[in-house]
């Protein structure tokens, strides 16, 4: 296991930036508590990348050093999937929250994994469209979490589950490889209002 106070933290900060890497007392309890009140081990570090390239560099480094990583979004799940195990790093998508594009002529939107579902809904509503996925946790759940759990939600009978609304993904594998699909973007389908 790498020394979290010296070399490995420095290399993570080179891949990201100083403010993107939290260690020790800077790690807030929200990174190891979930919505149900479950408590996990405090992670070795919390990293908050902004780009796919930063996620790729970080995961490549963790893969080389054999450091396990737990990814976190809005932490609205109830199955402990976002809680870290002992000696893990948390990769938080909280800074990857951009809605990069809304293309009403094609009926698609491009959003990062940390974008809140409600923000996506509100953004496409500005264009007189809807994003049909809807959950009670819309104000706190992230789109990456919706994808990873294949969320159904309140409109599932009419519009289908999350995978029915996804046209393509950009994915970073555990070893840092970036896989592109559908013109290198994550595209989601929209409906008209």
What's the arrangement of secondary structure elements?
Layout: H1 7-15, E1 21-22, E2 45-47, H2 52-65, E3 69-72, E4 89-92, E5 99-103, E6 108-111, H3 117-125, E7 129-130, H4 143-149, H5 156-159, H6 162-165, E8 166-168, E9 170-172, E10 178-180, E11 187-189, E12 191-192
Parallel strand pairs: 2-4, 3-4
Antiparallel strand pairs: 1-2, 5-6, 6-11, 7-12, 8-11, 9-10
Task: Report on the architecture of this protein.
The protein is α+β, with helices and mostly antiparallel strands and 193 residues long. It has two domains: 7-92, Uridine Diphospho-n-acetylenolpyruvylglucosamine Reductase, domain 2 (2-Layer Sandwich); 99-192, 2-Layer Sandwich (Uridine Diphospho-n-acetylenolpyruvylglucosamine Reductase, domain 3). The protein contains six helices and twelve strands. The protein has helices at 7-15, 52-65, 117-125, 143-149, 156-159, 162-165; strands at 21-22, 45-47, 69-72, 89-92, 99-103, 108-111, 129-130, 166-168, 170-172, 178-180, 187-189, 191-192. Strands 1-2-4-3 form a four-stranded mixed β-sheet, covered by helices on one side. Strands 5-6-11-8 form a four-stranded antiparallel β-sheet. Strands 7-12 form a two-stranded antiparallel ribbon. The longest helix is centred in the first third of the chain and has 14 residues, at 52-65.
């Amino acid at each position: 296991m790498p020394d979290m106070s010296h070399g490995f933290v420095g290399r993570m900060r080179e891949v990201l930036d100083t403010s993107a890497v939290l260690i020790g007392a800077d790690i807030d309890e929200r990174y190891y508590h979930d919505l149900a009140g479950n408590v996990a081990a405090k992670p070795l570090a919390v990293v908050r990348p902004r780009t796919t390239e930063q996620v790729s560099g970080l995961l490549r480094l963790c893969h080389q050093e054999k450091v396990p990583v737990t990814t976190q979004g809005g932490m609205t799940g109830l199955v402990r999937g976002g809680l870290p195990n002992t000696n893990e790093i948390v990769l938080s998508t909280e800074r990857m929250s951009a809605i990069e594009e809304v293309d009403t002529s094609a009926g698609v939107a491009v959003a990062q994994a940390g974008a809140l579902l409600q923000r996506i809904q509100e953004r496409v509503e500005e264009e007189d469209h809807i994003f049909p996925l809807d959950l009670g946790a819309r104000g706190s759940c992230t789109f990456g979490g919706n994808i990873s759990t294949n969320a159904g939600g309140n409109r599932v009978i009419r519009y289908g589950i999350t995978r029915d609304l996804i046209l393509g993904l950009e994915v970073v594998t555990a070893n840092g490889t970036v896989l592109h699909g559908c013109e290198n973007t994550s595209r989601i389908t929209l409906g008209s209002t």
